[in-house]
Write a structure and sequence with these properties.
It is globular, with a radius of gyration of 20 Å. It is about 30% helix and about 30% strand. The protein has a 7-stranded mixed sheet with strand order 12-11-10-13-14-16-15, with helices on both faces. The protein has a 4-stranded antiparallel sheet with strand order 2-5-1-6, with helices on both faces. With about 300 residues, the chain is of the alpha/beta class.
Length: about 300
């Protein structure tokens, strides 16, 4: 094997686009996707806070299918760019790679709100007062960098923090479109009694199970392939929670509201709806009202909105 056997593909984007770009790259590259912070602000205690753009990188092996793969990748990114502009792609030849070291050179802790910090699975949580959520950053199903995920994490922490510690075990949570499982992991570490996470993507569910195991929560976090229909049909261990999260996209949220998403919330329970752009809020608010729910909170980070209904 020659020294230059890989073509590195990289793009710099803000947190709002990183996960979408990562998911596209993950379809084509070998060894997974690297998400690298380009600018870190020093914080007390040695943790870093991401302040700049994030670099998303992946690697294509140089073989007789390289040009075909590059073209398919560029087409996929073009389609993504019809939703929101995608930054220019950079291509660089690199020497043979030790995949186990690629992540360690690029991934930094990410602080969420006042309670949580997301760290790579190989890093020691140390003596920080924050609750550490360990995530395998090689899995492109949600690493906590996207504003919608950060909003959900902050809301979950806020809701559980409002419950006395000794009563938190009575709290159940359902996460629809669970991705990496990061919301469920956070909820359990914050004291929730049980969490059900479902996703249509089998690979996402497997990634979530691995992350649950990394955090010592494999037995406590129920993760299954499915969505609202399967939950309402009683296919899992429970079908109603004090907290219900749907961090998806606005059109999907509207469909789920019409199909009875609110039925999953226990009396007095909260429904977290995220993945909503600012101009989509009025439509979602109408969907909330039509579902017989009441909007109680609105959170914003950049262009993204998370709504809490009950």
């Amino acid at each position: 094997m020659s020294e230059e056997t890989w073509l590195e593909i990289s793009l710099e984007a803000d947190g709002e686009m990183v996960e979408a770009i990562s998911e596209v790259l993950a379809r084509f590259v070998t060894g997974g996707v690297v998400i690298e912070s380009t600018q870190i602000a020093d914080e007390v205690g040695g943790e870093g806070r991401v302040t700049g753009l994030l670099r998303v990188s992946g690697y294509l092996q140089i073989d007789d299918r390289l040009e075909e793969t590059k073209q398919k990748l560029q087409e996929a990114l073009w389609h993504l760019g019809q939703i929101r502009p995608v930054p220019e792609i950079e291509f660089n030849l690199v020497a043979d790679l030790d995949w186990s070291q690629v992540w360690k050179e690029h991934f930094h802790p990410v602080q969420i709100g006042e309670k949580l910090v997301i760290i790579p699975d190989w890093m020691d949580a140390g003596g920080d007062d924050r609750i550490a959520i360990k995530i395998n950053p090689g899995m492109a199903f949600g690493t906590g960098t996207h504003p919608t995920t950060q909003l959900c994490l902050e809301i979950v922490a806020e809701l559980l923090d409002s419950v006395e510690i000794e009563n938190r075990k009575s709290i159940s949570m359902i996460d629809i479109g669970c991705g990496s499982g990061i919301l469920g992991i956070a909820a359990l570490k914050l004291g929730a009694g049980k969490v059900l996470g479902v996703d249509r993507d089998q690979e996402a569910v497997e990634a979530a199970r691995q992350n649950a195991q990394i955090n010592g929560l494999y037995e406590q976090l129920e993760l299954e392939v499915g969505s609202l229909r399967e939950i309402k049909a009683g296919k899992f261990s429970f079908s109603m929670g004090e907290i219900v999260a749907a961090n998806i996209l606005a059109p999907v949220i509207m469909r789920l509201l019409a199909e009875g998403l609110g039925d999953l919330a226990a009396p007095g329970g909260k429904l977290i709806l995220s993945g909503i752009l600012e101009d989509q809020v009025p439509e979602i608010e109408s969907g909330i009202e039509a579902a017989g729910l009441v909007l109680v909170q609105k959170h914003q980070l950049g262009d993204w909105i998370a709504l809490v209904a009950e």
